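FORM 7B - TANDEM STRUCTURE REPORT

SECTION 1: FIRST PROTEIN
SEQUENCE AND TOKENS:
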Amino acid sequence: MSTHELHTILGPDDWPAAEVINPQGTAPICLVCEHASAYVPASLAHLGVAPEHRKSHAAWDIGGLDLAVALSARLNAPVVASRVSRLVYDCNRPPSAVGAIPERSEIVDVPGNVGLSDVARSARASEVYEPFRTLLEATLDQFNRPPALVTIHTFTPVWFGQPRDVELGLLHDRDDRLARAMLANRPDDLNAQLNAPYSVTDGVTHTLREHAIPRGLQNVMIEVRNDLVSDAAGVARFADILNTMLTKALATQEAL
């Protein structure tokens, strides 16, 4: 019996649950995109989510993968990306977190996640989160020197009816070195802020806490407002901005 036959959520055409893009990248940087995809396996029947919400920010980080890939090309760094929607399982949350399998995301109801049994929740973690986690660990192990771990996210310009003015957020957990160094190298005309629009208190730094901090890796969570990376020009602009900010910040840290 194959491994795929043991799974109840992801069918043979759904694999792999996670992938590495530019695996031969030589820069000492590992990019991560936990919310790269809006894909929901056929077995889950769209989770009962209304059609107009299936490609919304609730399902994935709009523009996040495009930005990660563009930044990967500029840095020549690998990207570890999930291939399954965060509505199935949010790979930036531990299995113990209620929000790992959300029943509602802002204004979007997710009927297929309501009232799941422990067995069903465990299957989601086993088939989506664990392959992602294992692939990220294996990718980090392959570097010749300790890499910086940089997660790429996007956020919606309006949240529960409230506009967000911040354009770029640089988030950190216990280790703020890289976030602060990047902030110091931000363009003057960019509204970049530390720990905005989220912070560690929102539970968003799981990947940093799980994979970077135990290894002593420099790390940062990048959040870009998604209306700014909604087309190729916006993606290219922010890939250039982040490439410069990250390169200068890492050079500064190495000089200390």
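SECTION 2: SECOND PROTEIN
SEQUENCE AND TOKENS:
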Amino acid sequence: MSVFVESVTKIYGSQRALDRVSFTINSGEIVGILGPNGAGKSTMMKIITGFLHPDAGAVLVNGVDIGENSLDIRRHIGYLPENNPLYTDLYVKEYLEYAAGLYSVKSVRSRIKEMIGMTGLEREQHKKIGALSKGYRQRVGIAQALIHDPSVLILDEPTSGLDPTQIVEIRQLIRHISTEKTVMLSTHIMQEVEALCDRIMILNHGKIIATDSTANIKNLAITGNQSILVEFEESINPDKLSEIHGVTGIQPVSDQIFIITGGQDDLRPIIFRYAVANQLTILTLNKQESSLENVFLEITR
């Protein structure tokens, strides 16, 4: 295992930012942390990286307690904070050389060259950081987080404020990095989670309220309802459709197309048998998938 968190609590005055949070992230996983503002995401990341100390609980990285060996643990963690603090008056290579020195990296020049190539900074390496676009600054931030070849990479809002092209490029970079490292990232972008993460943890009011694969999280049905899109060849009276066993709601889209809601049992075979019995022709019969965004909004409400 790479990261083990047990019953971690952090309190700021009267606010309980984290409330007995426990989870495990295994080697090679990409885990996304979702949650509303103030849910405790950044606090959790800062505790794992050693920037904050928990008021209770334990954090182990690669089996070592971070409370007892904070400096040693930081050698194994790469961290990109949300606001990506950089020295804007330094040149890209100069800044990476400085970051490498903090970690006593051997073969500094070759390592910097490797990081510049990996993060796509070849054309920007001779510029001052202050002259770079935000997308390239994020690349510099990721390069410094990787300069010491950590086994665990923690990214706080890595694509915040980027344009669509930059977002795709940073996602591809993170996916490439994850083949050899454990990655933990926080984001507000649902598409990012679906594109990158093997598993999701949803935080709310300092507690983990859901954790599972992306597919299983999307299939969470708090109300227990499902939606079926049905298109008939002919016009149908919606009152007739409400007679189908298990149907709890009918939403007409047109006089031939309806969204039918019901319980947890799959309604499609029931609707099909109803159509056959009533000599109706079905053109479309699709189960509507829950979106990650809708599930997130529902369980954090």
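SECTION 3: OBSERVATIONS ON SECOND PROTEIN
Residues 138 and 149 are 18 Å apart (CA to CA).
Residues 164-177 form the longest helix (14 residues).

SECTION 4: SIGNATURE
Preparer initials: ____
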